[in-house]
């Protein structure tokens, strides 16, 4: 128990602007109460002493008294947003044991002590040194204590007190979820609720009218009204027709101070749509869908999917999805999968983790079709919130387009501009980007690119007929890093009229010898390698050198075909079996192109029904004037000669080999010289033919293999010359070795000199 000698601390309460509270505080004090009549700017200090007395019964029934506290009080008040030049005096602490000699020191601790609230340790005056905001903190709990100045010994127990920040009307109402989008069924009754908008006021709702809100409609009458107290928007006209007008822009105002003059206000826009109805609205299984996407993704990448369920079938079960609100409306786009009927969220623009890390979308699913039977039901739609978080990535340069398609005319000169690709570094550093075309995508190097600005040009003239499309890739590299990204570039070679037309087919035209004049023998058409599509048209004419020929004529049918007619009769294969007709073909391109094509017309033998029997090419094989019978005779002679040769060879092979075998390498010649005179044609005994055929046998001489024979020797020595009246003969016989197969023979050639 503390000694009874401790006095009471006096608390001077400063109640700014609330005179009633001052009166209550000053008029309800008991005991030692004194008033400090000193005035202070904006303050009315008062001296308050409150006593607490507690009794309790001892063990023997006596009444025990607890010693009095030196100070007891409830709370102090200080007004918020005070901007005066001097610190605000909150109150004064004083103890009865303080005789004024300065031996007592007052100590303050707790929330804001020493920073927001300071105390004069001699006088006990408490001041607020900073401007206070009730919306940040409504009250502060502090602890006060009186101690001896020299020993810091507590003279009384510490006690807590509260400093409350008194509210003023300094916050206007705010609509945190605006702008709003709402819908109501068409033909709704008057008073049908559209939606409820709610504004919030940060001021103290328990003090005065600072947070008392009243709603009113500024725009949207006479179609809609709003309840002043609840903020519910209702229809004000009957039979509003969606087909006549579907959307209404309504402006709602919320005003505090109960709507009286001097109150603060805030507004929000509400877009109200009239919708059709059916018997079942769509419903999202979840109210919030978390999704994420990396910052290195390019536009067109899928972020996520969600689906609203509708038990209706057919058209009534179809759900249409829309992004109706959110700070990511310009960053993301929504499409519907035609197979799964899901809402597909895709990236519309690139996102940057360093700039913004979270996006919110509000997606609405509604039925596009209605059933008049359920006009009073609805609205039939549902909403879900999508929260998309951006994931950090070390991102390479990003091309502005997902792919590029350019066009360039064929035969354009070297250096012709094809197009430009552009990529940028989306990181904070925003480093420069260099471009190049990988060689494997442009093997023949038809194109080149400026590494600085991404301009693509040609390196040579292009030919559409050789290659109509060039699909290459362009890579972009961030300077100073290894980050590379690629994009597809499709280059279409535009056609120019640089190819002459030609016959569609090169088949020969077969014509009968007996064809009648004026008869159609062929209809020709043309083709052009150029890309003219349905605009292509050809004209035909005979070449100038045959324009006046007497055999054939040409008629242009004006449908890109021409007809060939016969002008005369009396064609003969034997006279001329092939005719060459030059035809000039022109197209309608710009510039126009033409070519001369030769049509081959072959004359054939036909029967009486003009059926072709034969189209021989005899004039190119046989001399002129040979008939079929002569040809057959020549062939028969050739066959007979071949048969004789074959028979001769066969007979030679059947002969026996001679008794004396000559080796293949033993080649000799025998020249037999006769110095005889013959008796003319009737002289049959001038020489012995057997001797000529076998001179070696006549002399009993057989050639030896180990002795090389002489080249020439006399056959019949000692024979004198015949009479002068006889015809003289000089004969020379040469024996040559001839090898046929594995057999050898000696051929004797006799010459009469």
Automatic annotation (TrEMBL):
Signal peptide, first to last residue: 1-27
Stretch list, region Disordered: 32-63
Subcellular location: Membrane
A GO term from the CC aspect: catenin complex
Annotated keywords: Calcium, Membrane, Repeat, Signal, Transmembrane, Transmembrane helix
Transmembrane segments: 630-651
Record has Repeat as a keyword: yes
UniProt biased composition (Basic residues): 39-56
GO biological process: adherens junction organization; calcium-dependent cell-cell adhesion via plasma membrane cell adhesion molecules; cell migration; cell morphogenesis; cell-cell adhesion mediated by cadherin; cell-cell junction assembly; homophilic cell adhesion via plasma membrane adhesion molecules
Stretches assigned to coiled coil: none
Domain Cadherin residue range list: 95-175, 176-284, 285-399, 400-503, 503-621
Chief subcellular location: membrane
UniProt-recorded Gene Ontology molecular function terms: beta-catenin binding; cadherin binding; calcium ion binding
Pfam families tied to this protein: Cadherin
Protein name: Cadherin domain-containing protein
The organism's taxonomic lineage, starting at the top: Eukaryota, Metazoa, Chordata, Craniata, Vertebrata
């Amino acid at each position: 128990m503390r000694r009874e000698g401790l006095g009471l601390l006096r608390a001077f309460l400063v109640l700014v602007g609330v005179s009633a509270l001052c009166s209550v505080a000053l008029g309800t004090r008991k005991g030692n109460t004194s008033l400090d009549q000193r005035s202070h700017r904006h303050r009315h200090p008062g001296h308050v002493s409150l006593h607490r007395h507690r009794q309790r019964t001892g063990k023997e029934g006596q009444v025990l008294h607890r010693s009095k506290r030196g100070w007891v009080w409830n709370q102090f008040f200080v007004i918020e947003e005070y901007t005066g030049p001097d610190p605000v005096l909150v109150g004064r602490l004083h103890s009865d044991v303080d005789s004024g000699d300065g031996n007592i020191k007052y100590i303050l601790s707790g929330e804001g002590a020493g920073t927001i609230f300071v105390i004069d340790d001699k006088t006990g005056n408490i001041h607020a040194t900073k401007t206070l905001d009730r919306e940040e903190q409504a009250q502060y709990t502090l602890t006060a204590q009186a101690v001896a100045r020299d020993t810091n010994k507590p003279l009384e127990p510490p006690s807590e007190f509260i400093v409350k920040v008194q509210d003023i009307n300094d916050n206007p109402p705010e609509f945190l979820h605006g702008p709003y989008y709402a819908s109501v069924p068409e033909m709704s009754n008057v008073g049908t609720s559209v939606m409820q908008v709610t504004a919030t006021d940060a001021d103290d709702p328990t003090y005065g009218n600072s947070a008392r809100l009243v709603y009113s409609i500024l725009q949207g009458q006479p179609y809609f009204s709003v309840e002043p107290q609840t903020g519910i928007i209702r229809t004000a006209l009957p039979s509003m027709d969606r087909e006549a007008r579907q959307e209404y822009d309504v402006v709602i105002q919320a005003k505090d101070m109960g709507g009286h003059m001097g109150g603060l206000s805030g507004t929000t826009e509400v877009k109200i749509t009239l919708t059709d109805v059916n018997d079942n609205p769509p419903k999202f299984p979840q109210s919030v869908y978390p999704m994420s996407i990396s910052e290195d993704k390019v536009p067109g990448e899928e972020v996520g999917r969600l689906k609203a369920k509708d038990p209706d079938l057919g058209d009534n079960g179809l759900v249409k999805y829309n992004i109706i609100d959110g700070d990511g409306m310009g960053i993301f786009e929504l499409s519907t999968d035609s197979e799964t009927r899901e809402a597909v969220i895709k990236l519309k623009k690139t996102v940057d983790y360093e700039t913004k890390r979270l996006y919110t979308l509000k997606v609405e699913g509604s039925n596009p079709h209605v059933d008049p039977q359920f006009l009073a039901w609805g609205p039939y739609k549902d909403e879900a919130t999508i929260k998309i978080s951006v994931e950090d990535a070390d991102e390479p340069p990003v091309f502005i387009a997902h792919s590029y398609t350019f066009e360039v005319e064929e035969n354009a000169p070297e250096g012709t501009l094809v197009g430009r690709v552009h990529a940028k570094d989306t990181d904070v550093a925003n480093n420069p980007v260099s471009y190049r075309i990988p060689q494997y995508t442009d093997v023949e190097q038809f194109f080149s690119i400026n590494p600085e600005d991404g301009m693509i040009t040609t390196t040579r003239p292009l030919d559409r007929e050789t290659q109509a499309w060039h699909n290459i890739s362009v890579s972009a590299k961030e300077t100073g890093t290894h980050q590379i990204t690629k994009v597809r570039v499709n280059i279409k070679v535009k056609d120019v009229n640089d190819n002459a037309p030609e016959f569609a087919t090169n088949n020969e035209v077969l014509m009968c010898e007996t064809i009648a004049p004026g008869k159609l023998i062929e209809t020709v058409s043309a083709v052009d390698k150029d890309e003219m599509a349905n605009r292509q048209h050809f004209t035909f004419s005979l070449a100038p050198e045959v324009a006046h020929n007497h055999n054939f004529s040409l008629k242009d049918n004006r449908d890109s075909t021409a007809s060939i007619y016969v002008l005369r009769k009396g064609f003969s294969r034997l006279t001329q079996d092939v005719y060459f007709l030059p035809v000039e073909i022109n197209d309608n391109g710009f510039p126009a192109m033409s070519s001369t094509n030769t049509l081959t017309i072959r004359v054939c033998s036909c029967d009486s029904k003009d059926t072709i029997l034969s189209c021989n090419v005899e004039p190119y094989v046989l001399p002129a004037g040979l008939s079929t019978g002569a040809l057959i005779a020549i062939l028969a002679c050739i066959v007979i000669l071949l048969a004789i040769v074959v028979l001769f060879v066969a007979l030679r092979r059947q002969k026996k080999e001679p008794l004396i075998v000559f080796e293949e390498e033993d080649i000799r010649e025998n020249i037999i010289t006769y110095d005889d005179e013959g008796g003319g044609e009737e002289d049959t005994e001038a020489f012995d033919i057997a001797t000529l055929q076998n001179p070696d046998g006549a002399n009993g001489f057989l050639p030896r293999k180990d002795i090389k024979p002489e080249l020439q020797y006399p056959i019949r020595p000692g024979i004198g010359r015949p009479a002068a009246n006889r015809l003289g003969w000089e004969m020379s016989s040469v024996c040559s070795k001839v090898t046929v197969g594995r057999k050898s023979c000696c051929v004797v050639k006799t010459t009469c000199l």
